[in-house]
Design goal:
Blueprint lengths: L1 E5 L7 H7 L8 E6 L6 E8 L3 H11 L3 E2 L2 E2 L1 E4 L4 H10 L48
Antiparallel strand pairs: 1-3, 1-6, 2-3, 4-5
Length: 138
């Protein structure tokens, strides 16, 4: 079973993730997403546990558990890891699966659609405009 582990400390490495799951079952794979700049993880990872019963036991034991001052979020991945990773990176890895802030619906499934976030401000804030008018920045 593939699991999403969110809200992990940025300093954590693959060995730290294995330690979190120690005693809860076999972890066959850990996929950390690293920042190209800091080389630290982006606050989430994906864990594969081949035995579903062990994965469910890990969810019950770890979801909501506080580690290093952060409350872990552990849920089953519905769909593919690639879809989840793409969605989390699009939303900066913030929010939690099931929350409205990152376009996941309850139960961890990815919703289609959703509103786009805007960045940088519009013309009233001195943002860049296209050729139809407005300021070209500050």
């Amino acid at each position: 079973m593939d699991l999403f582990l969110g809200n992990i400390p940025f300093k954590y490495k693959e060995s730290d993730i294995h330690q979190i799951f120690d005693g809860l079952g076999n972890v066959s794979k850990v996929k950390l997403t690293l920042s190209n700049i800091t080389k630290q993880n982006k606050g989430f990872c994906f864990v594969t546990m081949p035995v579903d019963e062990e994965a469910q036991k890990a969810i019950e034991a770890l979801n909501g558990k506080e580690i290093d001052g952060k409350k872990l979020e552990l849920v089953k991945v519905e769909g593919s890891i690639a879809e989840w990773e793409k969605k989390m990176l699009r939303h900066g890895g913030s929010g939690k699966p099931g929350g409205p802030s990152n376009n996941f619906s309850k139960g961890g499934k990815i919703k289609s659609g959703g509103s786009a976030k805007t960045f940088g401000g519009g013309p009233a804030r001195g943002g860049l405009m296209n050729k139809t008018g407005g300021s070209r920045g500050s």
